[in-house]
Specification:
Strand content: 25-35%
Distance between the termini: 12 Å
Low-confidence stretches: none
Number of domains: 1
Strand order of the largest sheet: 2-1-3-4
Number of helices: 3
Helix content: 25-40%
Shape: globular
CATH topology: Glutaredoxin
Largest sheet: 4 strands, mixed
Order of helices and strands: EHEHEEH
CATH class: Alpha Beta
Length: 83
């Protein structure tokens, strides 16, 4: 099965973004997925946020679709990764 792709959109001024990044890094050690953190102030992050009409960070994009806005509950994140 191909690996899932998880992208976390963040910004430097975001107080909860480090919590979201910690959660996805923890889950990455248990599940097989590609993980990338993109800052919305950078061209790649800005382009993805615009394409998906994302207006808040942290936002988690899984396999090209917005999955979570804010820091997800660990159980919810696991459920999405296992589906």
């Amino acid at each position: 099965m191909p690996s899932r792709q998880v992208i976390l959109l963040v910004s430097q001024w975001c107080a909860t973004c480090p919590d979201a990044e910690r959660l996805w890094n923890k889950l990455k050690s248990e599940y097989n997925f590609d993980f990338q953190v993109l800052d919305v102030s950078q061209p790649d992050g800005r382009a993805l946020a615009k394409k998906l009409m994302i207006r808040a960070v942290p936002s988690t994009v899984i396999d090209g679709k917005l999955a979570f806005v804010g820091v997800p509950e660990e159980a919810e994140a696991r459920k999405v990764l296992e589906s």
